[in-house]
Design brief:
The structure is a homodimer of 369-residue chains.
Chain A (H helix, E strand, L loop, with lengths): L16 H12 L15 H8 L3 H9 L6 H14 L5 H8 L4 E6 L5 H14 L5 E6 L4 H13 L4 E5 L5 H10 L3 E6 L8 E4 L1 H14 L5 E6 L3 H16 L8 E4 L5 H14 L5 E4 L2 H14 L8 E6 L12 E4 L2 H16 L8 E3 L3 E3 L5
Parallel strand pairs in A: 1-2, 1-3, 3-4, 4-5, 5-11, 6-7, 6-8, 8-9, 9-10
Antiparallel strand pairs in A: 10-12
Helix pairs in contact in A: 1-2, 2-3, 2-4, 3-4, 6-13, 7-8, 9-10, 11-12
Chain A binds a DNA duplex (30 and 30 nucleotides) through helix 3 and helix 5.
DNA sequence: CGGTGCAGGGATAGCGCTATCTTTGCCGAC
DNA sequence: GTCGGCAAAGATAGCGCTATCCCTGCACCG
């Protein structure tokens, strides 16, 4: 009943939608009524029938492929809207051997840092019609590998991964898949890979230089979680101190426990008890530093007079701590955005002029140093 | 070459894998070599051929369907392992009209609360082989609707949604889909729905009662974001104050801005400037309370002597604030876990004895009150 | 005025699985 | 024995799309 093409003065044999895709189809599939496997949602065929075109034309129209006359495309879009049609991503992925999906693996969602990165990625990908799959590896190489294996099965258009710390077999899978991949956050060992981040090593050095410039001489590094990036920051810090002949290996407190405010306070207490002479502490993550500031207040330790405290990442709360926490601000939104854009380019088959993008970092000097 | 069934004394005609699924298949599809649409990954057919069984048997074996003899199943699993076979989820979803996916929509990832809920959900779903899709609605009904529409297209096995605040059309889509759905966090308007949470209304009342019990008489409520749950907490607080004849509508500060530490400090300042006589403040979320405590310290406002401060959610950092923040602890891990389990039951077609599960809340009394 | 190029469509044929019959052989029962 | 019933496979037929080829009509060409 639909689709008598009165609007268009056709140049060809009129296409009879009901005959072609309605009645005949129903006749040649007599078991249609007993087959209950379908989802009940409208299919592309129904849209096509309603618009009076063939299914492929409908497919092309909805995908915005230009070889469809605008008038037809419009009819198809309208039919889709009227029926409430939504593509079946599984069917699309199967037929085209590619999904509309991008997978991201971050090591934690508890760290605000990665949440902000994800937001930036979303903001780039969503407008392109790409679904973002979020995986949390919990800082575990094995989970990271599982997630990658799992996601590769979905044939994502691209992958965004955090850092380079990865099992050998995960690396092989990635390579074998041929799926474009951009690495976020670190640069220091990203030779030959596409990566967007900053040098954790240099950031650690910058921390040391700032404390030295503030006249500090006995400085400690406190790191938790002990992921590669934290270790690199520590290493950068260490080297800069060595260079200034101020390095003391005893002034280093590392623990694999996950970073948290509570832990920061605890480590701060331990450190001061063991080394009361300390006059500066660099924390590998801001939440540790927050805990330290709170613990200092509780103990009456004066910050920064007695000990300067420097954080890392510049989480939103840092500027409001008492005293306001100095921290190294990391450009996670920019990293997320740029990494997403780079991935988009790779997905489009373009080669990227600058495969390694250093987004830098910024020292935020506040009251705590 | 593979699969001469020497191991099993067959009762039937021997199944010749190469003839059935190898050579003949290749002959009847002469264009196989020029078709480059395939992904290159091994398919179930190849696994079946290698194991010397039919594809359906291989499918059944890998899905653990018991009607396959253990010996065959073992051969299939081994073949799959040798080939590095991973199912194509798109093909599976298309063929079975269902995915191995559960979708979750939370209003924010910036709030630690929801991250912890997600972790609990993951912990339940992953072992069942279910993929968890995470959607962030940013406290927007429109985004919530978009996410739901989008996820429904994936034919998830189930949905976990936060709260009941939802557009009419989202509600209709959910109902029409017939996909099981569990609502998390709130109970107050969940009549007829499956929900796991606690009464935001009663939690708000408990906050008021605690402050009253502490001898406070001029109490304010500070809420940001203004999502339904925050408003309900405020409403519960208000009603309890009214009942005690202590309600003063001027002592309420609501803002649609997203909750944050910085905002908490700012609102605290505004409130005290406008109403210096206040002796108790209930913050709708802990990060606001954190900001207030820090701002109080900066201003020399003594907490709790001058003003008692009570938070909500009991975020991990609250116990370490100065003074330690009293807060209403919400059982988000338990909610996530229980909601996931309830959804699992619904997905299995079971009816749930208690469709509304009140997980309660716990007042954590610390130094700030 | 026949060739020939180019659009705008359509027909055909799967993508890689699984739901649903069928078939086969075997067992026990009447 | 014959037959019903059962268990363990296999054959068949799509799921809902899209890649790929193909067809048709028209414009343009010399």
């Amino acid at each position: 009943m639909v689709g008598l093409r009165t609007l268009q003065p056709s140049r060809r044999l009129p296409f009879n939608p009901d005959a072609a895709y309605g009645a005949i189809t129903l006749m040649t599939t007599p078991k249609n009524d007993k087959n209950t496997r379908t989802t009940g949602r409208p299919t592309l065929n129904e849209v096509a029938r309603r618009a009076g075109v063939s299914p492929i034309t409908a497919s092309r129209a909805l995908r915005g492929i230009p070889s469809v006359a605008e008038e037809l495309a419009q009819r198809v879009r309208e039919a889709a809207r009227e029926l409430g049609y939504v593509v079946n991503p599984a069917a699309r992925a199967l037929a085209s051997a590619r999904s509309q999906t991008v997978a991201v693996v971050v090591p934690s969602l508890g760290n605000q840092l990665f949440v902000e990165t994800l937001e930036a990625i979303h903001a780039v990908m969503r407008p392109k019609g790409l679904e973002v799959l979020i995986g949390n590896s919990h800082y575990s190489r094995d989970e990271d590998e599982d997630l990658i294996r799992n996601y590769l099965a979905y044939q994502p258009r691209g992958l965004l991964l955090t850092g380079f710390e990865r099992t050998e077999s995960a690396r092989r899978m990635l390579e074998a898949s041929g799926i474009p991949c951009v690495y976020m956050m670190d640069l220091d060992s990203g030779a030959g890979l596409h990566c967007v981040g900053f040098s954790q090593l240099r950031a650690g050095a910058a921390a040391a230089e700032h404390l030295i410039a503030r006249g500090r001489r006995r400085m400690a590094f406190v790191g938790a979680q002990l992921d590669q990036r934290t270790l690199l920051r520590g290493e950068g810090f260490r080297r800069a101190l060595q260079q200034a002949c101020l390095y003391n290996p005893a002034f280093e407190l590392l623990t694999p426990q996950p970073s948290s405010v509570g832990l920061g306070g605890e480590l701060f207490g331990q450190l001061l008890a063991a080394h009361p002479q300390l006059d500066g502490i660099f924390f590998g993550n801001d939440d540790l530093a927050h805990g330290a500031l709170l613990e200092a207040m509780r103990r009456g330790v004066r910050i920064p007079e007695q000990v300067a405290v420097l954080g890392f990442n510049d989480l939103p709360a840092s500027a409001f701590m008492v005293p306001r926490l100095s921290s190294i601000h990391t450009p996670r939104e920019a990293i997320g955005r740029r990494a997403a854009e780079m991935l988009l380019a790779l997905m489009a088959g373009q080669s990227v002029a600058e495969p390694v993008q250093d987004m830098g970092f910024e020292l935020m000097v506040r009251e705590s140093t």
